Prior knowledge:
Distance between the termini: 36 Å
Oligomer: single chain
Strand content: under 5%
Shape: globular
Radius of gyration: 22 Å
Order of helices and strands: HHHHHHHHHHHHHHH
Structural class: mainly alpha
Number of helices: 15
Largest sheet: none
Amino acid sequence: MGAVLFLLPFYLLVRNGLATQGELSARDWSLFPRSLHWSNFADVFDSDEVPLLRSLWNSVVVAVLQTVGQVFLCSLAGYGLARIPYRHANKVLYAVIASLMVPTAVTFVPSFVVVSSLGWISDLRGLVVPGLFSALNVFLFRQYFLDFPVELEEAGRLDGLNRWGVFWRVVVPNCGGFFAAIAVIDFIGSWNQFLWPLIIGQDESSWTVQVALSTLLSSQNPKINLLFAAAAVSILPIVLVFVVLQRYLVRGVTETGLRG
């Protein structure tokens, strides 16, 4: 029953994406349209109103760069707070936690002013760079590394590795499940961003897929069936990421991060 409820939104996306505009507004409901209009998917990519292919590419670039950047920077910050002795480490941690209490809407105006002053409006740098750091990820990595066995790190130091070598060659390979879990969460969050890309992407060449989908809905002649078709296409990257990293996610939940 749970699987059926989980798959219901995907069924509605595909079903409505293969229907005509008239069938969506009809009173009678059927499990499938009378005829499957696969041309709807082609019409979405051929539409002059929405550059869907370009928007998909922009979303892929933004999501991948933000995911890689967040995992790399936040893991380094979390490892430093967990392992490197520093007299102000707790103060830095408290500042990171305190920043989680600041509503995102409060930071929009100053972030926009900074991005605008750098000339990054309608530029992918304006979409990517502000999202390269996450205080929540720093806290999660820090808590995870606190439970990582110190004996493995000491063994790496005995082999002549410096702190960077210990992190890169000992810690990271044994924490693949946790890194994958954080990466999936970051990728989905970045892919589904709407408000910030809407503000920064003022030119259609810098639209992400979420902004492109909104233009289909807000146009003077909204084509709901094409919107469903475009939405079905837009979730494919997320589904692929989940399928590829699923085994790492399961391992990250069931194990402590250590290889046998």
